[in-house]
């Protein structure tokens, strides 16, 4: 459960809300608004009392000063960390990651006040956003998580569909049970039924023993059907029966089994178009799309780019023990890119930049693409921008398609399809 506690103080933070939200630890999901000062610890009288046993009784304090909000360690046993670096005193900036013990928190600020007009940041699982469409998607996913209804998540490759599905599972009553991923785009068609439902010994050549399928593996938990648009037509009626009646048969048997499984599906294709072309069953589409959530591509929500970039750098800072940041020109270059690989491409690009950059402050020159490349403008269509980004990735990869796909943050199969679309060798 998420709730917000307001801390009273002499000087109400009128010009911009400052919020600390717990993302990992026993108190995960709790958020607290800071209006003046805030004490953090395990003591009962702490403003932010944490159940984390690795947090000291008086661990840290956040106080408002003329320069901004100051984080101070209070002599804790395990230390206070800002963006992965242990600190005694440090000023908080929007999007900063604060870690005390085994509890991780995101600091966000909004409004036009001392925090520089930053926007409030929100998370859903490992997903981060500030844009209104994504915040609405987070709210919808949060509401759907509590039920057993089948959820369909739409979005281009790299928009975070798997992360969204995992977060739905983690917030559901099935959170302590398995989360199983079944990728319909990677399983050969002739094996898909046995991989999904399991098979009996001798059911086909090579079936030397009985074997359970993904449905069995997900018993009591959640089965994530990724790229469900790739499911063969002859298998779709069997999935529909499973969704409707919770019944299925292993290949080579006549006995029906009952499954206690919650389903989340995802697709990067237009299933309505697939239905109109008789490539996807209409009844199955209606069955899985009653609760539909769309994750927009990154180019349609540019306000999320700075927040995501800081989020990824914060994670890298923790992993590498460095205090990484972006220069203004780097943020500008990121905002101009068309991101055909979406969030996955952004994450991979920043990881590459950190590996190549000799300092902890990344400029546009450190980014592994030309500043402004792939910018969508009246002079060039989105398709032109996407084609240009692919050409640049192929050039950087020396023509190695798999390496280029990694640079773009997309699957090799997606790159091959796009290269064929643009007539690229």
What descriptive keywords fit this protein?
single chain; 425 residues; alpha/beta; 7-stranded mixed β-sheet; 5-stranded mixed β-sheet; 32% helix; 22% strand; globular; disordered N terminus
In a nutshell, what does this entry contain?
This protein has helices at residues 132-145, 161-170, 189-197, 214-217, 236-245, 271-276, 282-288, 304-320, 328-336, 342-356, 382-396, 401-408, 412-422; strands spanning 4-6, 18-24, 31-34, 37-41, 48-49, 60-65, 68-73, 80-82, 85-87, 89-91, 97-100, 103-109, 122-124, 127-129, 151-154, 179-183, 222-226, 247-249, 256-258, 262-267, 291-294, 325-326, 361-362. It has 425 residues and is α/β, with parallel strands linked by helices.
Notes on the structure:
The chain is an alpha/beta fold and about 425 residues long. It has 13 helices and 23 strands. The protein has helices spanning about 130-145, 160-170, 190-195, 215, 235-245, 270-275, 280-290, 305-320, 330-335, 340-355, 380-395, 400-410, 410-420; strands spanning about 5, 20-25, 30-35, 35-40, 50, 60-65, 70-75, 80, 85, 90, 95-100, 105-110, 120-125, 125-130, 150-155, 180-185, 220-225, 245-250, 255-260, 260-265, 290-295, 325, 360. The chain has a seven-stranded mixed sheet with strand order 1-3-2-12-11-8-9, with helices on one face. Helix 8 crosses helix 10, helix 11 packs across helix 12 and helix 12 (about 400-410) crosses helix 13 (about 410-420). The termini are far apart. Residues about 1-15, about 110-120 and about 370-380 have low confidence and may be disordered.
